[in-house]
Amino acid sequence: MSFPEFQELLGCLFHWRNAFFNYDTDRSGHIDAFELNNVIASFGFRLSQLGLQALLQRYSKVINGRPAVAFDDFVACCVRLRALTDAFRRRDPMQNGQAMFNYDEFIQVAMGL
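Above: the chain's sequence. Below: its structure in token form.
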């Protein structure tokens, strides 16, 4: 990793840390589904309920009977969202939220992350 890449990564980590703790309104050290939806929206992502549920299923643990995302899992989620979004945008030349993938390209993107 080059120094500029390290600087970018560090900047992202600080941004994600600040966002996490700003949206952890109950100061539990975890963010719930509502808080996760709000913080993801603040980054410019507009996810459906099914999209949010997919994130929760992958990155949350059940605490007190409800899904909750810890900071380290939140960072992993942000890294994955950013990488997927970057790959999608490269295949969305009109930037209208529609991209064309053939199956092989999809596998390359999904497995490469």
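The first strand starts at residue 30 and ends at 32.
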